[in-house]
Amino acid sequence: MKQFETKLTVRIYDTKLIESLNTIFKLNKNRYQTKNQLIVELLERGIKDKMKDFPTPPDSPAGASAIPPVFIKKDDTAAMLKQLKEMLSDMHSYNKQHIEGLLAHLKMSEKMSACIYNILLAIATDEPVTKMQVEIGYMDDVPKRFIEFLNELLSAVFDDDDGDSEDIPNVVN
Fold first, then answer.
1. Which among 12, 9, 11, 40 is positioned nearest to 25, based on CA atoms?
2. Is 137 left (phi over 0), alpha (psi -120 to 50) or beta?
3. Cα separation of the two ends of the chain
4. Chain centroid to CA 93: how far?
5. For residues 22 and 14, is the Cβ–Cβ distance under 8 A?
6. What does the alpha-carbon distance between residue 37 and residue 19 come to, in Å, rounded to a whole number?
7. What is the number of alpha carbons within 13 Å of residue 162 lying toward its C-beta?
8. SS3 for 72?
9. Which of 10, 37, 123, 124 could form a disulfide with 32 if both were Cys (CB 3.0 to 4.6 A apart)?
């Protein structure tokens, strides 16, 4: 059996279409050993023909340079730049909101994980843990070794050639 197998099942209810397919297959016995080969070729031809209906963007810089430039008035350029600026501003606001939401969820997950870790550690060392301690956040502190590990990861991510560590976020609980 092949490592990667692609399979497509097609149901054809049009008897005239099936008869035409069978006729083509019978007339080309030397060309196609199976109906599957015939159907695949017909699909390829149909798809190639159908793709002509859709505009295709150039796939290389050379192809892009073949598109003639459209000369527009200075007023049009200013309006377009203004529209682009507004669009970028909106995208920035949208992304900022979602990133802030993600950070809030990550911070909550960090606290919950730390709490679970600290509870398990307390149980393993036979320390008494009360419901009140858990509810007031007594167990929420991220263990020091995890903070150090996170700081190492962040310094590796934000490490630059200058050795400047101003860009590294400070992890504080």
1. 40
2. left
3. 55
4. 20
5. no
6. 17
7. 6
8. coil
9. 37
Contact predicate 154/171, CB 8 Å: yes
DSSP state of 30: T
Residue with structure tokens 């023909």?
49
Give the residue extent of every domain in the chain: 15-55
Q: Chain centroid to CA 90: how far?
A: 21
Q: Spell out the long-range contacts of 103-112 with Cβ–Cβ below 8 A and sequence spacing 24 or more.
A: 110/142, 111/137, 111/140, 111/142
- The tens-digit pLDDT sequence of the chain (173 residues) is 456 677 778 888 889 988 998 998 898 888 888 888 888 888 888 888 888 887 766 555 555 555 555 656 667 788 888 889 999 999 998 899 889 989 999 999 999 999 999 999 999 999 999 999 999 988 999 989 899 998 898 888 887 545 555 555 555 44
**Alpha carbon distances (Å) from 28 to 32, 46, 48, 62, 137:** 6, 19, 22, 42, 78
Torsion, Cα 28 29 31 34, to 10 degrees, reads: 110
Q: Tokens 């149980």 map to which residue? A: 123
Q: What are phi and psi of 108, to 5 degrees?
A: -65, -45
Instruction: Return d(Cα 2, Cα 99) in angstroms, integer.
Output: 43
**pTM score, two decimals?**
0.42
Tokens in use for 6? 């692609």
